[in-house]
Each structure stands twice: as C-alpha cells, then as structure tokens.
Amino acid sequence: MKSQPFTRFLAVLLALFLLAGCAPKPAGTPVYLPTAPVTETSAPTNTVEPTAVPTATSTPEPTATDTPQPTNTAIPPLAVVPEQSAFWCLPIDYAFPASAEPITNVAPAGARAGAMKDGALNIQIPALSCTLVYAFNQPMPAGTRIQIAYAVTPDSPWADTELTPVPDNPNLGYFKTENQFVINPPYWEITFPVKVLGPDGSELWKADVRFFKALPNLCWDGSLPDPVTLYCKSYDGDWNYNDFPNFNPTADIFK
Fold this sequence. Notes:
The protein has two helices and 13 strands. The chain has helices at 3-22, 180-183; strands at residues 86-91, 112-113, 115-117, 120-125, 127-135, 145-148, 159-162, 164-166, 169-177, 189-197, 203-213, 232-233, 239-240. Residues 38-44 and 247-255 have low confidence and may be disordered.
C-alpha cells in the first residue's frame, strides 16, 4: 500500500515536468549581441589646396611696337673749317677773265693761293681779283658776314657784307673783290684784319690777311722802286724807270 503514494508522487512530478516543458516561454528581454563599437571616424579627405581659379586676364591687344623715333641730333654750333677753306688771287696775266672762274674751295690753276705764315694769311699780288672762300661745318645760313678793316682802325671795317653762297655747295660762302687797295695797293704790302661773323654776330673766323708784292732789286740808292709804277728815283729826285727795279727771281715771296 505504501507503494501507491510514491507512485502517485512520481506521476505528479512527471506531469509537472511535462507541463513545464510544454508551457510557452515568457517573452524575455531582448538580447543584444555585442557589436564592435562603431567609432565615428571621419573619412580621410584628401585636403586639396584650393586651386586658384585662373582669373580671366585680359590679354593685351597687340600694340604696334613703339618704334624709337629718331632723336634730333644736336646740330653743332656754326663754325668755319679752315682746312677746307681756300684763299687766292688771280695774277694780272691770268689767261681767262676773273669772272669766268667757277667758285670752289680749291684755288684755280694758275692762281696764287694764300699760305699761313707768322699767324697771318699771305697772298701775293698784284692781281686781277682776290677771292676768299670759307667752308663751314654745315650749310651757311643767310646773314653770315665778312668784315675787312684797316690795321690802324680794326673796329671800323671798310667792307661789311654778307658772304655769297656757292650754289653747288651750301657749306661754302665767298667774298670776291677787285678793290684796288687789295689787288694793287700803292704799297709793297698791306695787311687787313678780317673777320667772319655768324648771323647772330658771333665771331667764326679772324685773321690778318697780308697782301704783298714780290720785291724787286733795290734802286741805285738802296730804296725800293714805286710799288705801282716800279720807277726809281733819278739822280735829280724824279721818279723814272731805269734798270734797277729788275725783279729778283730768287726773292722770298713771303719775306
């Protein structure tokens, strides 16, 4: 009889067990699976330097290249070029009329050219005419003058006139004279102070110009004959031509 209660107990226990296995599971709390913590990393950004946006540069319009304008070369002051100037007298036995000679800065054939000596320009006379040709370093301007004075009155010229331009060469100007005190004065020599002045009065050239005659032999009394007639004094004091004034061919014409 004792086995029945035990059996009954086992039966109840089994029933409870079965009931417990068949009972619906109570809703549990949600189970979260552990996940790796998401670290908020900023995606590596390629730091790109801001590219300078090319500004629209205005391309300069092609301008005509500034061609350097020729600068005005400073014109040197007006001046006489002595080495290109020429001075001469035509002898009295010259083959052609003095007016027929073209004017250049070269003495014509047969003329007696001037020469510098002792600071003076020396030209032999007597002559048909005498010509002074001046060369300038540029075309000779109008108003360029020549002044000729006596040695005793150098500041009172007896000739004050414009130089005549040479048509074929604008850098040349000349003065031509048949004045008897120049071509055949009553002296064996005569000296004139000569100046060339620019239009503004500036002095461009200055020299003593000595016109001289070749000296003859002396007269019987040791004097020179008359410079124009070539007469010597006679024994009674009159001026008569005789054999004394024969010209000395070896005389220094620049004496």
